Each structure stands twice: as structure tokens, then as C-alpha cells.
Amino acid sequence: MKRIAKLKLTTKIFIALIIGVVIGLFLQNDPDRAIIFQPLGDIYINLISLIMVPLVFTSLLLGVSNVTDIKKVGKIGLATVVYFMGTTIVAVLIGLLISNVIQPGAGMNLVPEATSSDADFPSVVDTIVTIFPGNIMEAFLEVDMLQIIFISLLLGIGVVRVGEKGEAFRKVVESIYEVSISVTHIIMQFTPLGVIGLIVPVVATNGLEVLLPLGRVIFAFYLAVALHIGITYSLTVKFWSQYKLKDFFKAILPAQLVGFTTCSSSATLPVTLNSMEELHINKEVSGFVLPLGATINMDGNALYQGITALFIAQAYGLELSIVSQLTVVAVGTLASIGAAGVPGAGMIILSMVLSSVGLPLDGIALVAGIDRLLDMGRTLTNITGDASATVIVSQLLNKGKRPKKVRGAQTQSVN
Question: Model pTM?
């Protein structure tokens, strides 16, 4: 028992997935008995839904408050945010393209309990209108995540505009945020039981073939990661900075490896800062861009949310319109702001994304066991994006130059 307690949560989840599959196969000819495990999954989904709103609301509001500090650094902040927004848009397009071409969940034919799917998003105009709530309490009671995100953004901006007068409100929100993180820690400990409760009935009803498409999900995701790093970041560094690609990737390789293994942009931050020193980036730029990127640069998350959400939709035979697909990625990316260091944030945000377009939350069980593998790619993408933003912003603002002692350098003057 002590050995099991010492295992990492991701290991426990993977073991729980295997146990759930074995039990599901054992009960394959008796799906009625498999339903006995369903309450475990239902309780877990309810717990996630319970913490989802306060966690996303407070983390996003605090994140916006921090981001608006870019006024202190003027052009650096503007250039950084514009770059992050541009690459995130490209990541959205790549993720949706890969999902629609490969269709990793096609042919699974799972039966959802109840969904509303595209019925909630009939047009672009209606989607935009529904973002603006007429009643704050109604938005929270109905768990309308688009409206909650808008409220968070609006209140975050308001806190910054009133300055010191908003500090009392901000402290209350920060306190709720800390409590939400603590509760999230508790809930995530029940994830293995939740996975067993969700996966046993699915395997008992559909058989082992229900898990085979997971390989396609992993392939689709890492193909998207490779395209985004190999094309988006590489081209921007090549044409918008003074660095050769070989030197750039050689310098950031240690940060990429640390991020890939730790799955934490924040934990990798010191290594990334050191990589920027090797490239002789001005500390005024790297000291701002990298911490900001660890909070708001969510290209990896945009790829992840798009591919996994569409996989779940395809698995249940549900069609998502282009509007709904864009909503999936937009909601997931915005909700990730400020939640980068939250344990289990990936699955919580995914559950929020699924509910925003009426997809069944049961689908979380399908990707929970491989979440760690996907999280590694998410972090790798985010860290590479942060580094590319740093060298590009440095070049655009002419805040740093590459000395002659660095091979392949092109001398530039600093204004």
C-alpha cells in the first residue's frame, strides 16, 4: 500500500486505466453488472464540474490582471502579446486541420447519454451574442463558460483600471483561487477511481477496440506539434530574427528536454532563461517575455484541446460545425490563462471545453490514460514558442544583438 501511495498520480491513472479495461473485458458479456462501476465515474465528473467554474474564473481573472501589467513595459508587452496571439491562431488551424483529416475517433460509434452539440451554436452571430451575459449570476448558475470567461476578462481589466481600490477585490479572488487549487489537489487524487468508473462500462459495452484509436490520437497530436514547431516557429525565427535555426534550437534544447520531462513551463523557466543568456538576449526582454509566456502562451494547449475534443466528438458520432470547433479551441486556450501551474488543469479544462459545446464528459476517460504523453508535447510546444517569441521581440525592438563570438552572428547596432 505504501508503494502505491508513493506512485505519481499519472502512474496511478495509467494503472487505473489498465484495471478498468481488464474489468470491462471480464464483464463484456454482462454490461448490466458493469454499470455498478458507473457511480464512481459520475461522482468524479460531478467533482470536476464543482471546481471547474471557480478555478477557471479566478485563474483567468488573476491572469488578466497580471497580463495588463504590460503597460509598464510598453512596446515589449504589445509585441509579445501580438506574437503569441498570431502563433495561437496558427496552432488552432493546424490542430483542426489534422483532426479533420486523420479523424482519430471515426468509427468508434459510442453512444452518449445526452448531448446538445451544434444545436447551441447555430451561427457565428448567435455565438458572439451569447458571449455577453445579461446576468452574472445566471451565467454561473447555467455554467455558460463563454460568458464566464468574458466576465473574468472584464473584471480583470476593471481591477487594473481602478488601481489600489481594486486590491481588496483582487485579494478576495486570489484567496478563492488558492482554495480552488487546494480543492483541485484533493479531487485529482480521486482521478484513478473516476477513470475506472468511466472506462469499465465503455469497454464492457464496446469491447477492447474502443481503445485502439488512442494511438491515432497520439499520432495526430505529435504530428500537429511537429508541424507547429517545424513550420510556424522555425519560419518566424528564420525570417524575423538574427539567429540561425541551428543555433537557436541548440541553445533551447536543454529547456525543451526539461519541459518535455517535467510537463511544466514554470519549472522550466530558469533553464529557458539560461538558454536566452546563451543567445545573448537582453535580460529586460527575456525577463518579461518568458514569465508572460509561461502564463498566456498556450499554443500546445490549443493543439491539444482541438484534437482531443474532436476525437471525443468523432468517437460519439457527433458532428461539430466550424463555429463549434473554433469555440472549442478558443474556450480551451482562454481558460488556460493563469492555470498553467494547476495540477490536473488539462483534464479540468477539457471537461469545461466539452461542456461548452455539449459533448459528453464521459469522453474524458478515453484520453485520461494518455494525458501525460500529450502533456509532454503540450509543454514542449509552449516552451519553444516562448523562446521564439523572446528572440523575435528582441529583434523587433532592437533590444539585443548577437555578438561576434557567437557563431553565425550578424552584427547589429542597438538603438
Answer: 0.71
